[in-house]
Amino acid sequence: MDGIAINNDGGKSGGQLRVALSHRETINALPPGFEGDLADNAILAVALELQRNSIPKYPVVVVSKDTNLRIKADALGLAAMDYETDKVDVEGIYTGAREVLVSAETMAEMFQHGGIPVEAADGSLLPNEVLTLVDSSRPSHTALAIVDGNHRKIVPLEKLPYVGISRIQARNREQKFAFEILMRDEIKLVTLVGQAGTGKTLLAIAAGLHKVADEGIYSRLLIARPVIPMGKDIGYLPGDMTEKLTPWMQPLYDNFDLMMGTQDNRDKPAHWRRGHEELMERGLLQIEALTYIRGRTIPNQFLVVDEAQNLTPHEVKTILTRAGEGTKIILTGDPDQIDNPYVDAASNGLMYAVERFRGEPLAAHVTLLKGERSPLADRAAALL
């Protein structure tokens, strides 16, 4: 079979697409350890058969996102490589923030008039980029600001003593930046990236709770996370859907306990409820797995997707295209803590979304740098 010609952009030929089948004898001739009816072994058998019959100037290469399959191919003497199209440059990834030198007069004008044109500081600034303005004559004199995505002005950050009923306060500059983009309703997509303990999930939940329970901007706070274990899966879990999801969602429950002071249930009356339980009973909060999100339309909700570094770019696209009218989506995650074997720091959906939405007026991003969970957690994240 000659296959079907593939045309690249511009009409240039991209080769031939055809389906190749392996013979049972080729599969049976694979070395020990490659026996059985595994699809991986059938793929490798096809590649080996093609390699034996290929023209030298057309080498056979196995392209897969499955690291284990690439290792098997290498063991059999086959060239193997990862799928590169959806990878991002991790070293040059967009941080969402930068420092800008301005004159003392420019800084004073921003506070006096509530904003200055972007061109007064740096014309290359992107919409919703967060800034540390530094006085060029006195570097110790700084101010925090953001590029207003709609009006192309630099405006000072809102001064929030705490956020809503949770009373969570920002402890460092990046957390102040995060709260700013979380609280701006015109920003419909927020991505928060940072190592363990920097407060990504806590900040997102605190802002969402404030927007839902205090301001009533959104009808519900919806929190979801992928069901991917850190280590070996423990298998079947008994109980109904809520009971099955409890081990996966426990980190979220911990955040609500911290915000609402319900960590300790000792000596509590029979009607006592943990923080998240009361919110769920009132219909203000829903916590679920991402497994069944396809096909849904999610209008007027504050959607937090935790552990988004374990999602593929296709899965992130599926989630973002579920957003209905008035919905805001927050993706949080740490690209250094990936449990999904089919993605890495350069190909996961979170970093892909950060790079693809760079400069979009509807989106904003902040990279959190300083751990605030505990001194031990901060040092462990840095050293291990």
Summarize the structure.
This protein is α/β, with parallel strands linked by helices. It has helices spanning 24-28, 39-53, 67-75, 104-113, 173-183, 200-214, 241-260, 275-281, 313-320, 349-356, 375-383; strands at 4-7, 13-17, 61-63, 79-81, 97-102, 116-117, 130-135, 142-148, 153-156, 189-194, 220-225, 285-289, 301-305, 328-333, 363-368. It has 11 helices and 15 strands.
Fold and architecture overview:
The chain has helices at residues 24-28, 39-53, 67-75, 104-113, 173-183, 200-214, 241-260, 275-281, 313-320, 349-356, 375-383, and strands at residues 4-7, 13-17, 61-63, 79-81, 97-102, 116-117, 130-135, 142-148, 153-156, 189-194, 220-225, 285-289, 301-305, 328-333, 363-368. It is α/β, with parallel strands linked by helices. A 6-stranded parallel β-sheet has the order 12-11-13-14-10-15, with helices on both faces. It has a 5-stranded mixed β-sheet with strand order 5-7-8-9-6. Helix 5 packs parallel to helix 6 (200-214), helix 6 packs across helix 7 and helix 9 (313-320) crosses helix 10 (349-356). The model has no long low-confidence stretch (mean pLDDT 85).
List the helices and strands and how they pair.
Elements: E1 4-7, E2 13-17, H1 24-28, H2 39-53, E3 61-63, H3 67-75, E4 79-81, E5 97-102, H4 104-113, E6 116-117, E7 130-135, E8 142-148, E9 153-156, H5 173-183, E10 189-194, H6 200-214, E11 220-225, H7 241-260, H8 275-281, E12 285-289, E13 301-305, H9 313-320, E14 328-333, H10 349-356, E15 363-368, H11 375-383
